[in-house]
Each structure stands twice: as C-alpha cells, then as structure tokens.
C-alpha cells in the first residue's frame, strides 16, 4: 500500500511546496476527468481496440439484418393492408352505387331527370283504377323509371290502385282529378306511349277525360313510397 | 486549502479549454483516472486518520498512474488489452471501495 502510512512532519516551506504539488496532481486529475467525461459524450471509436471493433461490427451486422427483416415484413403488411383497403373501397363504391339505383326503383329516395308530365283532367269522374293501371303499365312499358301521381303517390313495384268513394287510392294515398303523372324516362318514348292512335290517350278521351302530355327536360320527384321491410320474403342468394 | 483550489482550477480548465484527448492517450486516460482516484481516496482516508503525508500521496499518485498505464500498454502488446484493463479497473475499484468503507466507518461509526 503506497498510501500515507507514516506520520511525517516537515518544515513549513517544504509543506507549502508539497501542498502545491498535491494541488497540481488533484487539479490534473480533475482536468483529466472533465476531459474524459466530455470525450465520452461524443461517440468515438478511435479508442476502441481491434477485438472490440470486430465485436461491435458483428452486433451492428446482426442488428442490421434483423431490422432489414422487420422492414420487409412491415412493408409486406403495409402493402397487403393498402391493397385490401383499396378492394374494400372499390366494393363499397359499387355497393353504394347499386344501393342508390335500387333506392330510386324502390322509391325510398327522390329522383330527378328528363321525362314527361301527363295531365289527366276527369270532370265526369269516369276514370277508374283499371284505366289508371293501364296508363301506368303503358308508361312502364315505355321505360318509365320513376313515376309520381299528383306529387304525393310514388308508384313502385308494390303500389296498388284502388277505386275509392272520393276518387282513387294509389299505394294508400288519396288522389283526385286532375291526375298529374310526373314520369322520369326517355321523353320521346314516353310521349309516344301515351299518344299513339288507339292508345291510352284515346282510351281516356273515350271516357270523357282530357289528357295532355308535356315533355320536360327536368322532372324532380320528391315524394317517397312507404318502404316496408319484408316480413316473409328472405333474400335467397346463391343457395343451390 | 490549496488542493481544493487545484481541484476547482482543474475542472474549470477542462470545461473552458475542452481539449480533445490525443489518440495515443485514449486507451490510457480512463485507467489512469481510476488509478489516480484510488490514490486520492487513499489520501482522504489517511487525512481522516491524521496520518496524511504529502510525499506519500505524490509518490502513490504518480506510481499508480504510471503502473496502470503501463499495464494497459502491456496488455495491448500481449493482445489482452481489454481484459487487463478490466482487471486493473476491478482491482482499483476494490481498493477504492475498501478505502471508502474505512472513511465511512470513521465518520459514521458504522
């Protein structure tokens, strides 16, 4: 042990000298510690030995390999997710478009487009359900896509026509003369279907009713049909 | 008192100058610091036991640093530099702990 072990007393002048020497050594140590601590902050591989560098290189290589594997894995996952999201979005678009088309046919949304307005005035009250049904059938045959009568009765697949004391009942809604059919479809075909000789207009006139057909570039239908959830019928999709 | 001034001046110089450790000194400096710390802690213990001697401290300080540096150098030459450095640090660490324990016993009687 080279530590201080013997009591030692010396002359004051020599004591001061050694104190300075001790101070120098302590100061040098403090200086070295400060420098070394600061040195360690900067990652410097200059002080490492060859073996350590090889070890470091090996561990960096392994980490690199592992991270590259992770990158491949995550990239594949990302691509898969992106692709599936694209598919889902496409399917959703198609489904939404189909739902909108079906909604127009089912009468659960409003509709707008070119068409005709057929006005039937029936002063004698001789137009009955059968005749109105004929009109509707004729219009459907001419490719009518959306029909509304008097802006209240939307005509869809389930719509029925009944005679009533006050006039007619179309799909549960009371309508009375004059009957105004707003029809969306090809205007010329629709007009033809009403006005051809021996057709609907002639039938109506035979009952003393006046029928006027009016082409419109835009017909807007806001009336909605009562949408009923099927109680008995279930969709039968793809079951052999 | 003067050593304390030396301590403060040393830290101040290190912070102020911020020199880079020369490449040839880099393997030796950390070991030298630990060796010097051993000498300083030993001196503190002797101071507490009222048998501190400047001369012994100076000699032990310089010899500790020199021997530690020499051992690192020797280890590098023999190809066991890192192992020998670890060994030196462990031995010096044990000595520092022993001295610190003596100081602690003296101050706290525990």
UniProtKB/TrEMBL annotation, chain B:
It is a multi-pass membrane protein. GO terms for cellular component: plasma membrane. It comes from the Bacteria. Keywords: Cell membrane, Membrane, Transmembrane, Transmembrane helix. Pfam families: DUF1290. The keyword Membrane applies. It is found in: Cell membrane. The chain crosses the membrane at residues 29-47, 56-74, 80-98. Belongs to the sbp family. This is Membrane protein.
């Amino acid at each position: 042990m080279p530590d201080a072990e013997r009591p030692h007393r010396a002359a004051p002048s020599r004591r001061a000298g050694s104190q300075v020497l001790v101070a120098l050594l302590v100061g040098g140590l403090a200086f070295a510690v400060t420098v070394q601590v600061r040195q360690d902050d900067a990652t410097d591989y200059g002080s490492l030995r060859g073996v350590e560098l090889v070890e470091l290189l090996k561990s960096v290589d392994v980490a690199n390999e592992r991270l590259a594997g992770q990158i491949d894995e995550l990239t594949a996952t990302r691509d898969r997710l992106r692709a599936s999201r694209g598919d889902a979005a496409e399917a959703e678009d198609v489904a939404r478009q189909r739902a909108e088309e079906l909604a127009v046919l089912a009468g659960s949304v409003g509709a707008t487009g070119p068409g005709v307005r057929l006005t039937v005035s029936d002063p004698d009250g001789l137009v009955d359900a059968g005749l109105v049904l004929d009109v509707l059938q004729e219009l459907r045959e001419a490719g009518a896509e959306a029909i509304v009568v008097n802006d209240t009765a939307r005509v869809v697949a389930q719509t029925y026509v009944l005679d009533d004391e006050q006039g007619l009942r179309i799909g549960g809604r009371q309508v009375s003369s004059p009957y105004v059919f707003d029809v969306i479809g090809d205007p010329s075909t629709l007009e033809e279907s009403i006005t051809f000789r021996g057709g609907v207009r002639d039938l109506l006139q035979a009952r003393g009713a006046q029928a006027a057909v009016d082409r419109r570039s835009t017909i807007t239908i806001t009336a909605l049909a009562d949408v009923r959830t099927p109680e008995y019928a279930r969709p039968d999709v793809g079951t052999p | 008192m003067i050593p304390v001034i030396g301590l403060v001046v040393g830290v101040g110089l290190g912070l102020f100058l911020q020199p880079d450790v020369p490449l040839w000194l880099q393997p030796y400096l950390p070991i030298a610091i630990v060796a010097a710390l051993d000498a300083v802690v030993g001196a503190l213990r002797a101071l507490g036991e009222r048998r501190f001697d400047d001369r012994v401290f100076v000699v032990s300080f310089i010899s500790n640093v020199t021997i530690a540096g020499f051992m690192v150098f020797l280890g590098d030459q023999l190809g066991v530099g890192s192992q020998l450095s670890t060994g030196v640090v462990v031995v010096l660490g044990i000595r520092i702990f022993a001295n610190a324990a003596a100081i602690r016993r003296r101050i706290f009687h525990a």
